[in-house]
Automatic annotation (TrEMBL):
Any GO MF annotation of the entry: ATP binding
Catalytic activity: ATP + protein L-histidine = ADP + protein N-phospho-L-histidine
GO cellular component labels: plasma membrane
Protein name: Sensor protein
Function: Member of a two-component regulatory system.
UniProt lineage: Bacteria, Pseudomonadati, Pseudomonadota, Betaproteobacteria, Burkholderiales
Amino acid sequence: MSIALRLGLLFAAIAAAVFVAVGAYLYQTLAHQMGRRDDADLLNKAVLARQLLGALPTRDPALLARAIGQDGVTLQVRAADGSVSAVPLGRDPGLADIAARDDARGSRRVVTVLAGAAAAPLQVTLVRTRSDRLAILRRYAFDLLGALVAGTLVAAALGFAAVKRGLRPLYGVIARADAIHAQRLAVRMPAAELPAELRALAVAFNAMLDRLEEGVQRLSGFAADLAHDLRTPVNALMMQTQVALARVRTANEYEALLASNLEEYERLARMIENTLFLARADNAQLALASTALDVRAELEHIREYFEMLAEDKGIRFGLGDVAGLQVRADPVLLRRAVNNLVSNAIAHTPRGGAVNLGAASDGQWVTLSVENSGDGIAPEHLERVFERYYRADAARGAGSSVGLGLSIVRAIMRLHGGTAEVDSVPGGRTVFSLRFPS
């Protein structure tokens, strides 16, 4: 069922419950008041009967009954014999003197008083049947039932109409959402114009659209950059092959062509492998084999691996004092992340510069750092150096680099629940930091 119909039925149920409660209260109140009125009338007739018996010259019960009236009250006059408890002559009858009698003829209210002379008193019994009052209450109950049904239907109809009107802003939100598609992600919900109940939904929806728009833009940029980087080695392979096939070549020339082609194939393979790694990391399809690792042993192993490359470029490669530190991480992924940073640092450090590995702990985080000297990274590039294929000469390598190294570093840190950060001073030092939870 629709929300409007559900709320309309809910309003009808609430109205019916309220009408029933109010009707029952009114019915019971009316019944009680009518009973009290009947009892008071019965007492008044008893007093009147006592007065008439003392004033009339005759004690004819028929004449007394006609004087009192026959509106549901029957009158019996007989000599007092003490068999029935009666109100004595010196006291007026009260509510406590009225007795209730229920038999096959129905429910009756009875009061008995003594009247006449004290020497020879008479016993006057007045009986009021409740059939007339019950008939009135029965008619009142039918009226209440009709009002209940009619009121419930009216409440349901008015509630449904009110809810439909109140939900108009929601229909506007639906219409605005229908206007959103891949080419119109800039459409946003008018949160300030919506009721308070829908405002939070509109704000959350707009935030989701912001994330989607950013993701689509990044995906479009990623696709464009990927196509551009794939085009370069493919064009190189095609041109080299076309040139080689233009005329007959010697065996050495074919061998050189194959070696050149092999470099381009390796570049394509690295690009495909890195792209698949990032795709799997984004979809959380990588299973981490986390274990407690000795930081110094891991960094020493990496330093030994890159030491010869650093010496060939005339770069000092150092390792700080990191004894006693441990980090919980996947060893393969940790080495890949640090290797990418070290490779990047060596590629951008001029001859005579230095690359240093370090680590520190503040109790909550264990931070691994790779520092190098060189030109540094301009401030406008710092926040984007980890994006895929982002073009910044100070942050991206050339030649064999496929431009995904720093993106892989950030993906690895996200898998570990950590962060990858960079701090750089143009013309000075550049520090990349990997922060792992302790």
